[in-house]
Amino acid sequence: MVKNPRTLPADGPAPAPSSPVRAAPAAPGLTGAGLAVVLTGYGLSNMDVFIVNVALSAIGADLHSGPAALELVVSGYGLTYALGLVLGGRLGDAFGRRRLYAWGLAAFTVTSGLCGLAPTIGFLVAARMLQGAAAAVLVPQVLATIQAATEGRARARAIGLYGATAGLSAVAGQVLGGLLVSLDIPGLGWRAIFAINVPIVSAALPAVRRVPATAADHRPGFDPLGTLLLGAGMICLLVVVVEGREPGRPLWLWSLLAVAAGAAVALVRVERSLADRGGSPLLAPAVLSLPGLRRGLAALVPFSVGFGSFLFCYALLAQGRFGLGGLASGLVL
């Protein structure tokens, strides 16, 4: 009986493939130096949310601005930061996270310098909004890089350090900001809280090459209309909150509430339509329907609103009413 030459015995060796298929090279791991670089940018962007609070009284006195304008100095940064996070993440997925991180870090340096050089309160508000947009470009790349370039214990450690950086940078913002304002180095006053970012980020930029280059397997979609509607609604609400408490409120101010409500309704319709067509909505309805996410938002949104309001009011009262300096105000908090 003759065996079929093309049939190997069950216990025989596996044949070598004539044209082996090469596996795609894995992304290089995230080293300690690379992790330090991405956490530096994240820490600075988070610190700048808080560092301004202890300098509000000094900013108001120097630029002759009232509480409403000072609110915009704080909330303007948060507005563009929040609006740009999803877009920044998708840009990193599409064009490379290390590249977008470097661009965001460079933009953060430039906008920090503009904040420190601001001659008027309007200029400072505009520069802060640009600074928030720069932070929105760099911050999403941090967790995305950790996710793509680590696994197992290394990923758990990196995420733990990410969380620690968030907490420590918030505390450092209060204390360091107060220290810089109190020391007045060298005659900069409140401007030093922005100027300090420039040398730190300038030193971190050359080290960005230590961060592994990663990107998404498939280029994600974008949602410019959804972003525009969300931004319009948030800006209208922000203007009403900031200006609505002043006496003699004009009618157009309250009409912004109707504009915000219309933008919200249109946003829901646009996002649902885009999701039904298989697109990539800014706020995916399917994600927002998750019970865990809804419970998380129900807890986080009131806390964030209350905490942000407390920090703003505390800084003005501690320094304006009780006469504490910047450093004492930060240390007390």
Account of the 3D structure:
With 333 residues, this protein is an all-alpha fold. It has a domain at 32-220 and 323-332: MFS general substrate transporter like domains (Growth Hormone, Chain: A, Up-down Bundle), CATH 1.20.1250. It is built from 13 helices and no strands. The chain is globular, with a radius of gyration of 25 Å.
Query: What is the CATH topology classification name of the domain at 32-220 and 323-332?
Result: Growth Hormone, Chain: A
> CATH class of the domain at 32-220 and 323-332, anyone?
Mainly Alpha
Rg calculated over all Cα atoms? 25 Å
Count the DSSP helices. 13
Largest sheet, strands/sense/barrel: none
Share of helical residues = over 70%
CATH superfamily of the domain at 32-220 and 323-332: MFS general substrate transporter like domains
Low-confidence stretches: 1-26
Share in β-strands: under 5%
* Mean pLDDT reading: 85
Order of helices and strands: HHHHHHHHHHHHH
- What general form does the structure show? globular
The CATH architecture of the domain at 32-220 and 323-332 comes to Up-down Bundle
Tell me the quaternary state.
Answer: single chain
* DSSP summary, beta strand count: 0
- How far apart lie the N and C ends? 91 Å
